[in-house]
Design goal:
By secondary structure, this protein is an alpha/beta fold. The protein has three domains: 360 residues, no CATH class; 31 residues; 145 residues, IlvD/EDD C-terminal domain-like (Glucose Oxidase, domain 1). Helices cover 37% and strands 13% of the residues. The chain has 23 helices and 14 strands. It has an eight-stranded mixed β-sheet with strand order 7-8-12-11-10-9-13-14. A hairpin with a 2-residue loop joins strand 7 and strand 8. Helix 8 runs antiparallel to helix 9, helix 8 crosses helix 20 and helix 10 crosses helix 13. The longest helix has 28 residues. The protein starts with a helix and ends with a helix. Catalyzes the dehydration of 6-phospho-D-gluconate to 2-dehydro-3-deoxy-6-phospho-D-gluconate. One of its GO terms (biological process) is D-gluconate metabolic process. Its cofactor is [4Fe-4S] cluster. Pfam families: ILV_EDD_C, ILVD_EDD_N.
């Protein structure tokens, strides 16, 4: 099947835009690669430190400088349900690698925090920055230069993006990601949502709410709704870093263990000493990034990936922005309805056909690039299969021809919507994204007076006091990366949802995040530039009419131009967000973080040598001048600010 014209055009544009950065990145990979095992560069003293505590037979193999060594980088902790199963993975991985003739060492651990625990708490202001902290921890783990391949154990919100960003900064080392899987299904999502709204309305107490939540989050594994954690796992499937169909196999099952062993063996096989060398910096390229965006749109995945995919791409010398998401969303159909975009959870999605079904449907429609490299060493078509055990042996069979449940998963020929779940909004309030896959058409246009809040706590106080029984758009500002680390504002969803159910026309505009909580209420999120970067949300006053038009991509304050231009951004004291719960340690992140559209990142694109930008290497065809659309986002943002 030939590739869809729009997908091809976006991909080509990304390739042109990224050319000097990608070239610099690949050059760095070649410089880092060593002939023979990587530890061959170490002195005898260095090497002796590297295996001093290892078992005798493994130590002998490491001494001989012949067999490959596999790093294990894990985000294990036993507080978080999704990461608790990883306690048992390292021994399984070490045994599988040893049986295949190599050696595996636990190279290092990374932090792993849960947004579900920190929601509405000061600790949530560390969440976004934990991604780059994890990337740095991954770099520390690999910095010993002992390793020829690596397996990465991570699953939740910032953890997988952080691990992948770290892995890409060691892009010469092959990488295999090993998921832990979702917990079994508990309390149904409609019932969970109903109980939360009752609590927000004051109709039930804390004991009833806690009982319902405990029935929802009840076992080892990821939360089963389709937020960032499970979007991560879908993306690792589609971007070829998992073994096929590995994402949504529940923990502590024979199939999960078999996939872990097979993943470990595959890491050994794709090292430079194995059957085929597949460095992660080549597996992740412009086409695999586009495939990730397409799959995110087709499944109604987390809005957090409008930042995380940008940052992942940047780590590989690739430049993408929200225009790419928006253009692709116009041609990618919505194939899945998973909570909060539907009632079903990821276990139902997996049972209906899951990621292998989605990949095949999108490939057959020409919406995914088939000619990419995956950890299998083949094109993406090889990932249209699902794993199972036959007489104790791991095998793969083709994805089902038909969806097992059309209320959860559909083919391209009969999608839930002809367009993807994300839209770009722009206007005099800046640029923002909105997840419309769960927003009913009648709610996609809201024009109402603004009520300005400088925190989600201020919003909740007004809601609990009964002050919001009317049509309005909540402008919750000073929630961007520079201001307070860009926390997710999940607590707003039940309150706004109950007001919408009561018949009021409501919406949300914020420079903060919503992620998987972006549900039935229209929410313009990640507004860029944020207020602390001079963003125009700082000019909004309560009572201003705000137009949030998801269908036409508009986000604007309906204020006379002369009055708007004369307004100044209000000065707000943010000192309370800078200390306590470790926030003072992250001051350097707040000072140096990029905008949401640039990935909310604290690292830069690969440095480019003099002359790399010559001959229109970034943009237009030879002989044509540059234009804004062909300029990298960091330069283009400067142009936009100057025009304003």
């Amino acid at each position: 099947m030939s590739i869809h014209a729009t997908v091809a055009a976006v991909t080509e544009k990304i390739i042109r835009r990224s050319q000097p950065y990608r070239r610099a990145y690949l050059r760095r990979l070649e410089t880092a690669r060593h002939q023979g095992v990587q530890r061959g560069t170490l002195s005898c003293t260095n090497l002796a430190h590297g295996f001093a505590a290892f078992p005798a037979n493994d130590k002998l193999k490491l001494k001989q400088l012949r067999v490959p060594s596999v790093a294990i980088v894990s985000s294990y902790n036993d507080m978080l349900s999704a990461h608790q199963p990883y306690e048992h993975f390292p021994p399984v991985i070490k045994e599988a690698v040893r049986e295949a003739g190599g050696v595996a060492q636990f190279a290092g651990g990374t932090p792993a925090m849960c947004d579900g625990i920190t929601q509405g708490q000061p600790g949530m202001e560390l969440s976004l920055f934990s991604r780059d902290t994890i990337a740095m921890a991954t770099a520390v783990a690999l910095s010993h230069n002992m390793f020829d391949a690596a397996v990465y154990l991570g699953i939740c919100d910032k953890i997988v993006p952080g691990l992948l960003i770290g892995a890409l900064h060691f892009g010469h080392i092959p990488a295999v990601f090993i998921p832990g899987g979702p917990m079994t299904s508990g309390l149904s999502n409609p019932e969970k949502s109903r109980v939360r709204q009752l609590y927000a309305q004051g109709k039930i107490g804390r004991d009833e709410l806690l009982e319902a939540e405990s029935k929802s989050y009840h076992d080892a594994g990821t939360c089963t709704f389709y937020g960032t954690a499970n979007s991560n796992q879908m993306l690792m499937d589609v971007m070829g870093l998992h073994l096929p169909g590995a994402a949504f196999i529940t923990p502590n099952t024979p199939l999960r263990d078999a996939l872990t062993r097979a993943s470990a063996r595959r890491a050994l096989e794709i090292s430079a000493q194995g059957k085929e060398y597949l460095p992660v910096g080549h597996v992740i390229d412009e086409k695999s990034i586009v495939n990730g965006i397409v799959a995110l749109l087709a499944t109604g995945g987390s809005t957090n990936h409008t930042m995380h995919l940008v940052a992942i791409a940047k780590a590989a010398g690739i430049v993408i922005d929200w225009d790419d998401f928006n253009v692709l969303s116009g041609v990618v159909p919505l194939l899945a309805r998973i909570y909060p975009n539907g009632d079903a959870d990821v276990n139902y999605f997996h049972s209906a056909g899951g990621t292998p079904f989605v990949i095949r449907e999108l490939l057959d429609a020409g919406l995914l690039h088939e000619d990419v490299t995956t950890i299998l060493g083949h094109g993406l078509r090889a990932h249209c299969v699902e794993p199972l055990l036959e007489e104790g042996k791991l095998v793969w069979k083709p994805a089902p021809e038909k969806s097992g449940d059309l209320s959860v998963l559909r083919p391209v020929a009969e999608p839930f919507s002809p367009e993807g779940g994300l839209r770009l909004l722009s206007g005099n309030l800046g640029r923002a994204v909105i997840k419309i896959s769960a927003v009913k058409p009648q709610h996609r246009l809201v024009e109402a007076p603004a009520i300005v809040f400088n925190s989600q706590d201020a919003f909740m106080r007004a809601f609990e006091a009964g002050e919001l029984q009317r049509d309005f758009i909540a402008v919750v500002r000073l929630q961007g990366p520079r201001a307070n680390g860009m926390p997710e504002l999940h607590s707003l969803t039940p309150a706004l949802g109950s007001l919408q159910d009561a018949g009021y026309h409501v919406g949300l505009v914020t420079d903060g995040r919503m992620s998987g909580a972006s549900g039935k209420v229209p929410a313009a999120i990640h507004v860029s530039p944020e207020v602390l970067a001079g963003g125009p949300l700082g000019k909004v006053r309560s009572g201003d009419t705000i137009r949030l038009d998801a269908e036409n991509g508009l986000l604007e304050a309906v204020v006379p131009l002369e009055e708007w231009n004369a307004r100044k951004v209000e000065a707000i004291d943010l000192s309370a967000n800078q200390v306590g719960m470790g926030r003072e340690l992250f001051a350097m992140f707040r000072r140096n973080v990029s905008s949401a559209e640039e990935g909310g990142a604290t690292f830069d694109l690969p440095p480019v040598l003099p002359g790399e930008f010559e001959n229109n290497s970034l943009g237009a065809d030879a002989g044509e001048p540059f234009n804004d659309e062909d300029t990298p986002f960091n330069d283009r943002d400067t142009l936009i600010v100057q025009k304003r």
